[in-house]
Design a protein that fits this description.
With 266 residues, this protein is an alpha/beta fold. The chain has one domain: Rossmann fold (3-Layer(aba) Sandwich). 45% of the residues lie in helices and 12% in strands. Helix 1 runs parallel beside helix 10 and helix 5 runs antiparallel to helix 9. The chain is globular, with a radius of gyration of 20 Å. Pfam families: PPK2.
């Protein structure tokens, strides 16, 4: 599967108009579903090697607008991993304690240890996106925070934590359908937040904020724009990219410290 078209090229201006939220990559749902099952099996095996090796870590960053599919991605794709080797963090509005520190203070402690996979379901980028749109950050402050994020991700890379970032790109119409479905289904009311409607009104402002955020794509911590109107293709593409990433990391089972051939279990 060719994943190159979804990579945000480092050092170039970003326009989300470049990617179609309804793109299916030339696949149909039946083919994609069959391919996904193979990829999920691969992910399970690669994670076991990563955990056994204990010398590298993988940090997966998920960002999206409301109803973009972050939770669905965690359930369907991240669910392929053994839970004992995965840590999921969700960064909401900072607490008073967190506000009393630098904006990355609360994030660094949630980075996965070596051997583990970490998932940021929303991330350190929330501390740029939301205040940027709501007026808490001007252009200069935004640029400083993005520079700090680049440095932070470079530090993680030096510490053998591979960072891969996914922006789930959903259209305004598909978001409308998903939010309305939450209102129409009493069992989904808990997932609806009236503030989501305010965010829809600021659609263009969030588009610009996301384009600024995506400019942090680098060879060491790349951003990928994931077409997310079709949930099955979203899952397929993310699984494909995670398999590629883990294969490139190439974790290995450690050599035994004893001679297995010379032992027998009584």
């Amino acid at each position: 599967m060719n994943t190159e078209p979804y990579l945000v090229s480092p050092g170039t201006p970003v326009s989300l108009d470049h990617w179609d939220p309804g793109d299916k990559g030339g696949w149909n749902k039946g083919e994609g579903s069959a391919r996904l099952e193979l990829l999920l099996n691969d992910l399970a095996g690669l994670q076991e090697r990563l955990y056994a090796e204990g010398q590298q870590a993988l940090l997966i960053v998920l960002q999206a607008r409301d109803a973009g599919g972050k939770d669905g991605t965690v359930k369907k794709v991240i669910g392929a991993f053994n839970p004992s080797g995965v840590h999921i963090a969700n960064f909401k509005a900072p607490t008073s304690e967190e506000q009393a520190h630098d904006f990355l203070w609360r994030v660094h402690a949630r980075v996965p240890r070596l051997g583990m996979i970490g998932v940021f379901n929303r991330s350190h980028y929330e501390d740029v996106l939301v205040p940027r749109v709501l007026g808490g950050l001007d252009d200069a402050a935004t640029a400083r925070r993005l520079a700090h994020i680049r440095g932070f991700e470079a530090l993680l890379t030096d510490a053998r934590v591979r960072v891969v970032k996914f922006y789930l790109h959903v259209s305004a119409e598909e978001q409308r359908k998903r939010l309305q479905a939450r209102l129409d289904d009493p069992t989904k009311h808990w997932k609806f937040d009236p503030a989501d409607l305010q965010a829809r009104e600021a659609w263009d402002d969030y588009t610009q904020a996301y384009q600024d955020v995506l400019s942090t794509s680098s060879p060491e911590a790349p951003w990928y724009v994931i077409p997310a109107d079709h949930k099955w293709f979203r899952n397929l593409l993310i699984a494909e990219l995670l398999v590629q990433t883990l294969r490139h990391m190439n974790p290995q089972y450690p050599a035994p410290t004893f001679d297995p051939a010379g032992l027998r279990v009584p």
